[in-house]
Structures are given as structure tokens and as C-alpha cells.
Amino acid sequence: MTFVDCTRVAASALLRYPLRTAMMLLATAIGVSAVLMLTSLGEAARRFVAGEFQSLGTHLLVVLPGKIETSGMGPGLMAGESPRDITLDDARALLRSPAVEKVAPLVVGAATVSHAGLERDITIMGATAELLEVRHWQVAIGKFLRQQDWDRASPECVIGHVIARELFAGQAAVGQWLRVGDRRCRVAGVLVEQGISVMVNVDELVIMPVSSAQQLLNVPGLFRVLVQSSDREAVLRAKRDIIAIMRERHRGIEDVTVITQDSVLATFDEIFGALTAALAGIASVSLVVAGVLIMNVMLVAVSQRTREIGLLKALGANRSEVTRLFITEAVILSMFGAIAGTGLGYAAVGLMQVLYPALDFRPPLWAVAGAFAVAVGCGLLFGILPARRAARLDPIAALAGR
Q: How far apart are the two ends of the chain, measured CA to CA in Å?
């Protein structure tokens, strides 16, 4: 029996039982589409986080108080450990490095803001004029904080899009007085609507001079210092200079952590890569289940097609040819199921893209190839047992239906 004959006989056998064939195709298709959907979800999350950090620029460094021994995003980045404060003078001293172009000291806290009887609790960010360029933000109306001595606590502020809409509905916010905690500041500008950026909802921020924020929140030190190096090649040199300057100012003790954008991106890539692989592994279990279903259905088929097998053997088909015939059926089922699942998966990913346009849903090529290979492999593996059982049938007993 040639390969073409074997394929033709296997295909005709599958077409004689359309319902059974459709059920096995559906089981495989669901498994493959699940792999594509879940890996697309993991990849979309990874691309979203990477895009958020890349939007900061390619040569940004973050200086935070406390020494973290491991690279990347350590717990201190979120928890705000501060064994020794970083002061405004420390931040100002970083400009001594020729590799440092701009420095933006930050203070972050919470306070209640109010205007004309309306109030809400929001996040307060103390910053300087350099923050606008370092973070690549834009002002929609008015202007950002003016260039001035960092120690000067001037009564001005810049507000986010949502704060302007909720507290100054129907009127111009710029030039109005806003009460922040027990202080007042005049609104200098309103930021362009930009949503959440690096885990900060910019639309709900009130930004005021860093000294004003320190007095309002009663904090002596800085939360973080954003440093922009002169170019991408100067990032490592700027990091070495920052550590050296801070050690010199802190009596020889290295008690700050400097995080580069590349190390943060590498950490997130590692985390989301592991998450995507785990999701692919979980979804692949459904392919194994589909393979078991194919094996069970084909075992039933062998018992139902006993006379057909007996006739094939009576016509001269040997054990090898009968085995090959049933394995071909299993491979055809799994292959066409994988093709249908790939189409179904891409259709589902397209629907997810329509529902959530902010995320970039695309299944990685390794997941598509892997799901297809696992589906066909499972079909081949679980088709061996039914094929061997069919090959062992005695032709005379099989023709008699025993």
C-alpha cells in the first residue's frame, strides 16, 4: 500500500463518520486555540509594560535610597526603603558628572485637594521643571513648573486632566487657586490626558515644587531621583558617577541603588516570559486531553471496523500497513484539528484586540509552532495503541466479526 493509497483510505474512513470526526477535530482545535489565546495575553502584558518603560526614553536612571544587592526591580523600588535620605543637595550634586544631563528630584505623597466646595484625595508629586522633559510629558493648557531654585517653595502647581475636569468643571483651571492640604497653590497648567504611565495615573496628579511638597508632606528626603544621561552610551558611566558621588557625600557608604532602564526591562522580560511559558504549558494540557480522546475514539473505531480490517488483511495487507493506516487517520485528525485551532485562535485574538485596543495581542511564533507540533505529536502518540490493536486482529476472526 503506497503513501497515497494509505492517505486516501484513511481519509475516506474519517469521512464515513462525520460526527465522530468533527468531535475529535473540535477537541484538538480548542486545545490549540487556547494555547494561542493565553500566550497572546502574556505577550500583550509584556509588550504593554515594556512600552511604558520605553516611553521614558532610552537613557534614564532611577536613584532610590537604600542599597539593593540584586539588580533590576527589587522590593525597595515599591516599598520605598529609606535607611538614609537623599536630599536636594545630593540630587543637585549629581549634575557634577559630565555623563548626567538632567536631574529631576521627586517627592510623592497623598493629600486632599479642594476647590469651590469640591474635594478629593489625590496623589501629590513634588518635582522640578526638569521633570517635564525627563518624563516626556506635555502640557495641554498653561505651562509647567517654572525654572527656579529647588529650595524655593513657590505656591504653584500643575494638575492632571481628571483633576481639572472634576474640580474646575465648566471653567478654566489655569490661574485658579487650589487648596492642597493646609496650603494653597495657583494652577499654572493642565497636563495632556495620558492615563497611567509606569504605575502612576498622571491624569489624577497634582504636581507642585519639590520644596513645597516636602513642607506639605513633612518629609526631609526625596522619594526618587530621575537622572537623564547625555546619551544611551553614557548610561553606565553616569551610573558609576552617581554611585561615586553619593558615596562621597554619605561618608564613604554606598547606600543608594541606581536602576537603569535596561535592567528594569530585562527583569520584566524575564517575569513575563516565564508567565507566558507557564500559560502555554497549562493550555497544552488540553492538547494531551484531546490526544486521549482521539485514542479512545479510535479504539472504539477498531472494534466497529473489525470486518473492514479483516477484509484488508484477506486482500493482502500486512500488520505494518494496517498499523500505518490507523496512525495516518490519527495524524490527519490532529493535523486538521491543529489547522482549525490556529484559525480559531487567531480569530479569538482578533476579537480580544477589538475589545481591548490598548493592548497588542499577538501570539508568539514559537507558541503557534509549538501548539501545532504538540497537537500532531499527541495524535501520533495516542494513535499507536489503536493501530497496534487493529494490526494484531486475526483476519479470519475479523471477517467473522469476532
A: 25
DSSP-derived 3-state class of residue 301: helix
Which residue is associated with the grid cell 507566558?
276
Half-sphere exposure of 140 (CA within 13 A, CB side): 16
Torsion of CA 129, 132, 133, 138, to 10 degrees: -140
Taking only the tens place, the pLDDT of each residue in 241-299 is: 999 999 999 888 888 889 887 777 777 777 877 887 887 787 777 777 777 777 777 77
Q: At what angle do helices 18-54 and 319-355 cross, to 10 degrees?
A: 40
- Residue 336: φ, ψ to 5°: -70, -30
Phi-psi region of 150 (alpha: psi -120 to 50; beta: other; left: phi over 0): alpha
pLDDT at 97 over 80: yes
- Report the candidate in 163, 149, 150 with the shortest Cα–Cα distance to residue 225: 150
Query: C-alpha cell of 89?
Result: 543637595
Is the model's pTM score more than 0.70? no
CB atoms within 10 A of CB 384: 14
Mean pLDDT of 49-73: 71
